[in-house]
Amino acid sequence: MKSYISAFIVGGLICVIAQILMDKTKLTPGRILVAFVTAGTILGALNIYDKVVEIGGAGATVPLPGFGFALAKSTIKEVKEQGVIGIFTGGIKGTAGGIAAVIFFGYIMALIFNPKTKS
């Protein structure tokens, strides 16, 4: 039960930060997205985000900084195993499953529902 609460709190704090950035700055949602992924990558490379993941579990790995964290960790692992070529293959190998799932489930939802562009 404690893990659910900590995941809720950590994930909620990440969302609160994003909402504050949207409300109080002129940053667009796209720029906030890029900032969160970049922050997750940098914090993951510096082993700081590891502590957040340890506390928050899925509350830290599912939001956007978690994607950056996965990119950093998988790239570091591949560089250790493959050398310089790991710079190019690490991020792809580490995040391919998540990206494939997003594409698959997005397609399924588009088949079930009637997607429309905003007017």
Automatic annotation (TrEMBL):
Question: What Pfam families does this protein map onto?
Answer: SpoVAC_SpoVAEB
The protein's superkingdom reads Bacteria
InterPro entries from the UniProt entry: Spore_V_AE, SpoVA
Q: Where are the transmembrane segments?
A: 6-22, 29-49, 84-113
Q: Does the keyword Transmembrane helix apply?
A: yes
Q: Which UniProt keywords apply?
A: Membrane, Transmembrane, Transmembrane helix
Q: What is this protein called?
A: Stage V sporulation protein AE
| Organism encoding this protein | Clostridium polyendosporum
